[in-house]
Amino acid sequence: MKSDAAIGVCYYPEHWPETMWADDARRMRGIGITRVRIGEFAWSRLEPEPGRYDFDWLARAVDALHAEGLGVILGTPTATPPKWLVDRMPDMLAVDHHGRVRGFGSRRHYCFSHIGYRRECARIVAALAERFGKHPGVVGWQTDNEYGCHNTVRSYSKSATLGFRHWLADRYGTVGALNEAWGNVFWSMEYRDFDEVDLPSGAVTETNPSHRADFDRYSSDQVRAFNKVQTDVIRTLAPTHDITHNFMTFHVDFEHFHVMGDMDVATWDSYPLGSIDTFPGDPVHKATYARTGDPDMQAFHHDLYRATGRGRFGIMEQQPGPVNWAQYNTDALPGLVRLWGMEGFAHGAEMVAYFRWRQAPFAQEQYHAGLNLPDNQPDRAYFEVGDLARDLFVLGTMGRVTQARVAIVYSYEAQWLLRAQPQGQNFSYIEQIFSIYRQLRELGLDIDMVGPDGDVSGYDLVILPSTPHVPDRLAAALNAYEGTLLVMPRTGSRTRSHCIPENLAPGPLAAKLGVRVTRAESYRKGSAVAVQIDNEDFTFDRWREFVTPQGADVVATMADGQAALTRKGRAYYLAGAPDNALLARLIGKLVKEAGIATDDLPKGLRTRRRGPYRFAFNYGPDAVDVSAVLGKDLLLGEAVLQVGGYAVAREAR
Ligand code: GAL
After folding, report:
1. Domains of the chain (ranges plus CATH)?
2. Residue nearest to atom 9 of ligand 1 (CA)
3. How confident is the prediction for the chain on average, in pLDDT?
4. Any long-range contacts for 595-600 (C-beta under 8 Å, 24+ apart)?
């Protein structure tokens, strides 16, 4: 049977003797791999001296892979400019917010704003695309590598300062308009000319949040512009090829929806064990899932990147075993390498590529596992990838995922604005949206993410996490939306330039929600405010607001009588940050009201539908019986699913 799910691998021919390449390609094909990403860090070998290209070795590597029927995704090498280039153009280096230059010796040592470096990128990408754009072995391109990794989106360089001034002049027209929009009369921060504006760093105390919000937007726009330099070249010279970039876990520093405007497929790099160790979370939870990964983190990003890719996404790097970069690097339980791959496909991935073919015996990532050991013996992941390929063969063509009934609106800008003026240290957008996502998934639901420009009209339930600035289009879409809507606190509390709206929060959603927010308070976790809902007690555990209903009914109150949850028609406003139990109760209630059927999933079990199939994944900690969820007739897996296992059934309905 034909499959629409490709398995890939990341491969570094330049790290290995050429005598190994043909055998590597043969063995890749042998375990079911059909895609190989190469080249993304190879600049020093592709252009060893200024202007002297050496692409012949790359051509031979592509040929070796192509000879086995493998399709190559060619990475542009711009995340690792070589030493000679940096020495020729030292001001291309990024500068951190303390003013320190971020030098050569690792990777991502460039400033997105540097026009000279962009030209160098256009040059090397054009040379590569001229040579490989029509090569039958090349099927697609990856631009650069992990924009923003190692905290590299914002640079405080001279180029960024000049670029920011231009950007502001374009946006505001006159410096008076800028002063007005930012409220610079406050503390005599007014400017007489755009050339007087510096970057928001180095001041005595906090800089104006409007200044920072615009610098975040500016920095994000530079990522898009930098990327577009490359996609424009590739489009011209390799017009039939898909272009992608590999995004990251919980990365918020640039607007991925915008950057994807110039590409075809969104891909992301999935490191479940590195990520559960690195990202904030309860230590008991981290310990429970240390060898499996968080049950929702991978799915969250599959759904997010499917949205950024307008339905088309994949995984460019999938963890194969221990990584090298978390604080503690655990090994995966047997089966997880296979499970993570299948879960990607269940969410609609076109490809899951594993990082990397063979563990590197040198340099920074020596402890990072691969499918093969440094001595070229197959490691555990090699066999699991083979198992995954066999399972995909059983499933055949899966088709695309269909629209879910629940949508969560995801906003990058919201995260910049909340970070610009947090007002409570523990208020976290990511934590909030991820908790919402988790609660919905625990009910066995499929979820779509929708960007601020996305279409919410076809959903039965839409949840808008704390979104300080609600852009006009989103406001219009939500005001016209007729299904069940839940709006979280702080929404509509700021204008685009980060000021309080004339009609106060929730700004453009005031009529829809029928409320006006007059005050907010934040507090430490542990000094919670009691909330009663349906005669049960819960809390707002870090944030609450004082809300005056203006047409809305009060559905639940806080202990001191303040409105906790209001409702106007089918639109709800929650006036605080809920504890998990309250969030679960509320979501359960709204899902029911929206008429959406749910499952009662055992702990650690998660499901997803794609095409004719429903998948179940057991993240543990215990073996579970999946027959209540999937029925008795399983295409893959056992009714009693072990930790790290998955099962697939044809959907009854
Ligand atoms: C990714 C990166 C890869 C490799 C990998 C190790 O962030 O794109 O180049 O460093 O991490 O886990």
Report:
1. 6-152+241-395 (3.20.20.80), 406-593 (3.40.50.880), 605-650 (2.60.40.1180)
2. 145
3. 97
4. 595/460, 596/405, 596/406, 596/445, 596/460, 596/461, 598/443, 598/444, 598/445, 599/443, 599/444, 599/628, 599/629, 600/443, 600/444, 600/628
